[in-house]
Amino acid sequence: MEEMKCLMIFTDGSKMDGRVGCTFVVFYNKTELDYRKFRLNDSSTVFMAEVIAIQQAVQYVKANDLGQVNIISDSRSALMALSAVEEARDIINNIKEDIKEYKGKIALTWIRAHMGNFGNERADQLAEEATLISDETISFVPSRNQIRNEGNKIIKDLWQNRWNDSKNARWNKNLTDKVNVDRLYGDFYINQILTAHGVFREHQARFFKKMSLCSCGQETGSVLHVIKECEIWTSYRKNWPSGWQLMSLKDSINNAVIRISLRELLHELLIKELDLL
Asked: Which GO biological-process labels does this protein carry (predicted)?
């Protein structure tokens, strides 16, 4: 960096409090000659702010015919996109084409951020100031990924509201209060606890008109009775951590030791009930 005698243009992008801005600042021998600040629409990403800063710097060089210029950025991702052989995004390809058509020479250089370099620190300051500009100076439609992500967020919010307001599945809501789109790996036995369906006699009585009394003869064969109270399954609780009686069902299922024994308990319960058929 110290050996460079040509013009150096430092670029940077910033996002603060949901507002996005970018800048480029022109130096020659550590003397600041010029700068530009741009405010982007709030849906923009920091990556796009970095790319826009480089784009505006390239256009500035071309408009002023500055000869040999080194454009310096701390955004490795933006520079990697510009160096890729194949790129689908129009803005990246347009920058590459502008650099190719320029009569002088434009070099793109990466610099590590926050290392005290005079130009990088100045660009960082100006990019933060750019987020405070009242009106957008550059705006563009959201990318396909942004539109998809925003659509997924809206769907998830609507789903959560329906889940909160629903009068159904009250048992399951106690165990799963937040909706999510994580992939589930089914567990035949644990799923019966989560849904209060399957082998439990309370469920069998409600849906198939079978006897609801637990085989111990003390209480209805509900999930909580079978897991925490029924004397038939006392041996499965011997190795449970202390204080398990005070644990919620949700915490019990998430406990690795209890979860393993619950699977074994449900497996034996299922065999017992099938033998009665």
From this structure: DNA replication, removal of RNA primer
